[in-house]
């Protein structure tokens, strides 16, 4: 039997019982088409966030504050290690824009900003054994963006992993260079992280939006899944 495309280790739910995950798997896209339309979606989402947070500290938003609380509880200083959604919003507030990268990534960032939830983008072509959210072990390696040296995650850190290749450190803090979505990507996973009763509705809406937007602009077909303690795996 093939490995799951996406899996949450049960220990994650033991540590954070309110954790919830949505996953959008898109296969067969052409990530060289729809660039202008995807960039326009991102620009619209950016403008809306800039207006919404005019004169308002991002950490005051419940959708962002919950990540600061969770990071603090894990021993990760929230002001040093920003969740990806807080980092994205703060960049918009500071600079007024988010650079266009490629259509699939732009659409993920647009949905993240619209619904204020962390959304990753992982090239499944580089993860034939699927991606797992689990606790870091001693053999794990994280390869940062650019030319920065490899890192060893802290033991017990919540990570996204493909084997011992860590794709995201500190849950939704920083993504590695190894699973980046490129113009050549045809199959990808958008994981959307949430908490029951706080951001799970927003995460579901973001997932549904991606299921509509990505095939409409880039072709291919999308599948949406909800993962919790009772349903921790996605197979396709």
Brief write-up:
The protein has helices spanning 10-15, 35-52, 62-73, 84-95, 103-115, 200-218; strands at residues 6-8, 19-27, 122-123, 131-135, 141-142, 158-162, 165-169, 174-175, 187-195, 221-227, 233-234. With 236 residues, the protein is an alpha+beta fold. Strands 1, 4, 5, 6, 7, 8 and 11 form a 7-stranded mixed β-sheet that branches. Strands 3-9-2-10 form a 4-stranded antiparallel β-sheet, with helices on one face.
Q: Can you tell me about this structure?
A:
The chain is of the alpha+beta class. It has a single domain (6-234), classed as Phenylalanyl-trna Synthetase, Chain B, domain 3 (Phenylalanyl-tRNA Synthetase, Chain B, domain 3). The protein has helices at residues 10-15, 35-52, 62-73, 84-95, 103-115, 200-218, and strands spanning 6-8, 19-27, 122-123, 131-135, 141-142, 158-162, 165-169, 174-175, 187-195, 221-227, 233-234. A hairpin with a 4-residue loop joins strand 7 and strand 8. The relative contact order is 0.26.
Number of domains: 1
Secondary structure tally, helices: 6
- Stated plainly, the CATH topology is called Phenylalanyl-tRNA Synthetase, Chain B, domain 3
Return the CATH architecture: 3-Layer(bba) Sandwich
Q: What is the H/E order?
A: EHEHHHHEEEEEEEHEE
Radius of gyration: 17 Å
Shape: globular
Helix content: 25-40%
**Beta-strand level of the residues, as a percent range?**
15-25%
Mean pLDDT over all positions: 96
Query: Gap between N and C termini, in Å?
Result: 11 Å
For the sheet with most strands, the description reads: 7 strands, mixed
Structural class: alpha+beta
**What oligomeric state do the depicted chains represent?**
single chain
Which regions contain 5 or more consecutive residues with pLDDT less than 50? none
The tally of beta strands, per DSSP, is 11
């Amino acid at each position: 039997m093939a490995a799951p495309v996406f899996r949450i280790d049960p220990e994650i739910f033991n540590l954070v019982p309110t954790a919830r995950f949505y996953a959008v798997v898109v296969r067969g896209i052409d990530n060289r088409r729809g660039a202008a339309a995807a960039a326009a979606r991102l620009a619209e989402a950016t403008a809306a966030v800039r207006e919404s947070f005019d004169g308002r500290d991002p950490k005051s938003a419940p959708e962002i504050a919950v990540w600061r609380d969770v990071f603090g509880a894990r021993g990760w200083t929230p002001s040093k290690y920003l969740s990806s959604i807080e980092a994205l919003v703060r960049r918009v507030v500071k600079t007024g824009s988010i650079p266009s990268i490629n259509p699939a990534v732009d659409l993920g960032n647009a949905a993240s900003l619209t619904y204020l939830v962390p959304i990753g983008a992982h090239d499944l072509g580089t993860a034939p054994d699927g991606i797992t959210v689990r606790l870091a072990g001693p053999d794990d390696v994280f390869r940062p963006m650019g030319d920065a040296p490899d890192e060893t995650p802290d033991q017990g850190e919540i990570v996204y992993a493909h084997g011992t290749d860590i794709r995201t450190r500190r849950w939704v803090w920083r993504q590695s260079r190894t699973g980046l979505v490129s113009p050549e990507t045809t199959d990808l996973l958008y994981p959307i992280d949430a908490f029951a009763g706080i951001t799970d509705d927003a995460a579901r809406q973001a997932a549904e939006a991606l299921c509509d937007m990505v095939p409409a602009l880039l072709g291919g077909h999308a599948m949406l899944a909800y993962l919790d303690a009772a349903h921790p795996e996605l197979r396709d």
